[in-house]
Amino acid sequence: MKKRVSLSLENTTKQQQSNLLFDKLKNKSFWIWDIEEHKQEDTRTKGVCCFNHIIGCPEKDGIQKPMFDYERIIFDALQNHSHLWIKKATGLGVTEFFLRFIAWLCLKDDGLSGSQICIVTGPRIELAIGLIDRMKKMFTLKLNLGITFNTKETILELNGVRIEAFPSHHLDAMRGLPNVSFILLDEADFFPVGQQQDARDVSERYIAKSNPYIVMVSTPNTPDGLFERIEKEPENTCLYKRLFLDYTYGLGRIYTEEEIVKAKESPSFEREYNLKYLGMIGNVFHTKDIEIALEKGSKYDPPSNVDEVNYYTQKSMGIDPGFGSSAFGVIVTQISDKQIQILEAKEYYRPDFNQMLGVVWSLLQKYGRTISKIYVDGANPSFIRALKLQMGEDEDYDEIIKECKAKGL
Hints:
The protein is an alpha/beta fold. It has 2 domains: 61-288, Rossmann fold (3-Layer(aba) Sandwich); 312-406, ATPase, nucleotide binding domain (Nucleotidyltransferase, domain 5, 2-Layer Sandwich). The chain is built from 14 helices and 13 strands.
């Protein structure tokens, strides 16, 4: 009898804690993005202005940070798109943002009560435990409500919503849930290759059933992985709203100038901070510049003779020799009327080495001596040597480069 009474009191206490938490956060904004409006609400409510100020803002090096403008980009995207794909720089706090956003969805009203939220992590169970532990600590570090969570390490219950983290190698338990409202795939590009597509399939099968939020977040990993495949999907058929958040979004916000200068000393900087896939690192054009160029190009209405060959202008050829699973690209441009005009732009998938030598040679024959420069990606020296032999040049170009560097040329 005493045991039954004790359990009843324990359950009553848990319910009281849950009610206190819900009452404190009910109908609160996630964040008030207008600074003046936020200040006024903060004064009026004596600091109980929004979800994040009530539970305590995110911290870096022990210092609380506000929600930044790039996080508003994510928040606004979620208002119009239930399926989101985010390729991001490390350290932006995007995972933290989503853990908070999920908790806010659960507590702002009863809309998700009775549903399940799934967080998919890498294959190590410690990753799943760690994310749930971070969510639990959101409500115990600042809120003085005596809240305790007695669920298992990979589960959190908030206002009738069951939040559970699943390692990527154990997704069978995620199948067949009755009412899934949100799925977060964290660092999804780093799931083992054999588990990436399975994680996507298991998540997307719920679209027809309960149409949940599906959010994929990751720093880029290797080419031809989950993230690059989705990135290459045509705009009109891709399920996901795609966001690209490189380090420049966090500069002067979550990162200091000094931190970025230090980070640039690492060979992994381009992947960790600048959204380049491993093995496809480049530093010629910034992603923002490419996006601006694409936008301008979509608005450009060229004259009818823009693609005519002007044999009195300077021309160049650019070659990106990709083989195997990578595409081979070649482009020929000319400068005319103070504009760079594209004469040829071709891409070949799963190309043959000798076939591509033939393609390049035929273009050289077509434009002849008017092509003054040929630029080739240095990552494929065998193609460069073969092309030089075909053109009658010295194939030992790397030795020539070393000699020039030694002479300071």
